[in-house]
Automatic annotation (TrEMBL):
PANTHER family, A to Z: MERCURIC REDUCTASE
Protein family (similarity comment): Belongs to the class-I pyridine nucleotide-disulfide oxidoreductase family.
InterPro entries: FAD/NAD-bd_sf, FAD/NAD-binding_dom, FAD/NAD-linked_Rdtase_dimer_sf, Pyr_nuc-diS_OxRdtase, Pyr_nucl-diS_OxRdtase_dimer
Keyword terms of this UniProt record: FAD, Flavoprotein
Name of the protein: NAD(P)/FAD-dependent oxidoreductase
Gene3D superfamilies reported in the protein's UniProt record: 3.30.390.30, FAD/NAD(P)-binding domain
Known cofactor(s): FAD
Ranges where the FAD/NAD(P)-binding domain occurs: 8-330
Ranges where the Pyridine nucleotide-disulphide oxidoreductase dimerisation domain occurs: 382-488
Protein's UniProt keywords contain Flavoprotein: yes
Pfam annotation, one family: Pyr_redox_dim
Length: 497
């Protein structure tokens, strides 16, 4: 007979979203079982944010070294990928999650290895790597935090080749001689530019008509110019029609007839969850939905008399694939779960308790149990940063999205390179600040900060969009001279009265 364990809550998937949810519920005194198929901590610390930004940082140092001539003397730059591969292994503890498991256990969570799927309204069946099954029954909550998997597009021949996803790319011990990147989004451009700076001949093939197609067109145009100057070959609006792999590496054909060859092929065309593998049919959720449907309290199904509710957080909800969003959604879900349970259970301290926790996996903010039932998930000011050089930071709506929603839109644009700080910075100073205002409301509904430290400049804009700061308050704000963020003031001037 299959073993059954009764707990207060089951959290399936322990990436940033699941780890935060399970940890907060554990700190509230709940009996929580966390199920993880791979590594506790999820994509971000082992194959996502942390290793990719480790690569980006090292590549940035090389770029700065190459910028010395004409600015500060002479410099010979000899790239060596070994230290980066070692730094990635240090940052990921060699893809070992012992410390992460311990950190979660200290927060009161029991961690189970295996793949979980719903087998009842209150039941998760976990299949271990040995095929053995165990059953977890939740009396109060089930949370699905399963992230997503890289999408493999239906390009003829591709599936039969040994292509890389971001996982293999960050695990590389050497920079390849040549790399073909399929997809000009964040993954493709961050990793493509980084390898390019280590001497890899990089070609990017983006199916849409510009890079980062979901962001402002100015961002895609800027990256097209800078990356091309950096030596990358960029093809936009020219999808692949076929791929082959042989002893000499990859050969790919573009729709317009180009033939591209490379030692490695990185597929970076997005990520998605497969709800059908989670058994969501028991919740009367269509297994073919592209993401787990949630309301603004992260509920998939509300709790009913005697039946626990089911919540979902993170990438799997399809509301944006960012660690900071997954962690925020976790906080909203936990607030709602504690509220649904009447504010917590014995031993719990809903509403502001801080547990004794060791340092978190970089990217997550542990520790503060949210007040029961108070907050709702909001998406009007989700910040996002693509860590290319220049960085592309954006928050809220693009101009096109705002117009599509019928908002009365006015925009302001200012150039970073010709600003006081841009002139001082000189080489590597390309960038802009673009503001999207709703003129009826007199507030910003979106903004982009591209350039050196674009992600940092974005901080002020995120507050402005999130808190709906009146334009007149922003115009009266004093922006320090000569900073990059002072370009926000110039963009406000361009926006007009
Ligand atoms: C290369 C790359 C770079 C990135 N850089 C950034 C960045 O700079 N900034 C940023 O904010 N975001 C970045 N992201 C995105 C970020 O990694 C994700 O948004 C974040 O990890 C999402 O967290 P999550 O908890 O929703 O899912 P995940 O981190 O994907 O975790 C889900 C976990 O669930 C487990 N799981 C799945 N199915 C099951 C199951 N049935 N049973 C048990 N366990 C299961 C998985 O093994 C996984 O560990 C990057 C992503 C990539 C790929
Ligand atoms: N810095 C960050 O925050 C960061 C970094 C990396 C990844 N992420 C997250 O991880 C997720 C995955 O990143 P990603 O870059 O793989 O996805 P993405 O959705 O950001 O970009 C994928 C790109 O591939 C293109 N594309 C789709 N199908 C194609 C095809 N058949 N041929 C050519 N191009 C095609 C799309 O037009 C798009 O530009 C994203 O949602 C992103 O938010 C975040």
């Amino acid at each position: 007979m299959t073993a059954q364990t009764l707990v207060d809550a089951v959290v399936v998937g322990l990436g940033p979203g699941g780890e935060e949810t399970a940890g907060l519920l554990g700190e509230a005194g709940w009996d929580v079982a966390g199920v993880e198929a791979r590594l506790v901590g999820g994509e971000c610390p082992y194959w996502g944010c942390v290793p990719s930004k480790t690569m980006v940082r090292a590549a940035g140092l090389l770029a700065d070294g190459r910028r010395i001539p004409g600015m500060a003397g002479t410099a010979m730059v000899h790239p060596e990928y070994g230290p980066v591969a070692r730094a990635v292994r240090r940052a990921t503890a060699g893809w070992d999650d012992t410390a992460a498991v311990e950190r979660l256990t200290v927060r009161g969570v029991r961690v189970l290895r295996g793949t979980g799927r719903l087998t009842g309204r209150d039941e998760v069946t976990v299949t271990g790597s040995d095929g053995r099954e165990s059953v977890l029954r939740a009396s109060r909550a089930i949370v699905l935090a399963v992230g997503g998997e890289p999408v493999v597009p239906a390009v003829p021949g591709l599936a039969a080749t040994p292509f890389w996803t971001s996982r293999e790319a960050v695990e590389a011990t050497a920079a390849p001689e040549s790399l073909l990147v399929l997809g000009g989004g964040s993954v493709g451009l961050e990793i493509g530019q980084a390898f390019g700076r280590f001497g890899t001949a990089v070609a990017v093939v983006e199916g849409a008509s510009r890079l980062l197609p979901r962001e402002e067109p100015e961002a895609g145009d800027l990256l097209m110019r800078v990356l091309t100057e950096d030596g990358l070959e960029v093809h936009t609006g020219n999808p692949l029609t076929g791929v082959d792999h042989g002893p000499k590496g990859f050969t790919a054909w573009c729709e317009r007839g180009e033939r591209l060859t490379a030692e490695r092929l990185l597929v970076a065309v997005g990520r998605r969850v497969d709800p059908s593998r989670l058994g969501v049919g028991v919740l009367d959720v269509d297994p073919d939905v592209p993401a787990l449907p949630v309301d603004d309290r992260m509920r998939v199904v509300p709790p009913a008399r005697g039946v626990p509710g089911v919540w979902a957080v993170g990438d799997a909800t399809g509301r944006g694939a960012y660690t900071h969003l997954a962690v925020r959604q976790a906080s909203v879900a936990v607030g709602d779960i504690l509220g649904a349970a009447g504010g917590g259970v014995a031993g719990g301290e809903a509403g502001g308790a801080r547990g004794e926790v060791p340092e978190a996996v970089p990217g997550t903010v542990p520790g503060v149990v949210p007040a029961a039932g108070r907050s709702r998930a909001e998406y009007h000011a989700v910040p996002r940063v693509t860590f290319t050089d220049p960085e592309i930071g954006a928050v809220g709506r693009t101009e096109a999205e705002a117009r599509e929603r019928g908002l009365p839109v006015r925009t302001g644009l200012a150039d970073v390179a010709t600003s006081a700080r841009g002139r001082i910075h000189r080489v590597g100073n390309a960038g802009f600040v673009k503001l999207v205002a709703d003129t009826d409301e007199g507030v910003l509904v979106g903004a982009t900060a591209a350039g050196p430290c674009g992600g940092e400049v974005l901080g002020a804009l995120t507050v402005a969009v999130h808190a709906r700061v009146p334009l007149e308050t922003l115009r009266a704000t004093v922006w320090a001279y000569p900073t990059f963020h002072r370009v926000i003031g110039a963009a406000l001037e361009d926006l007009g009265p």
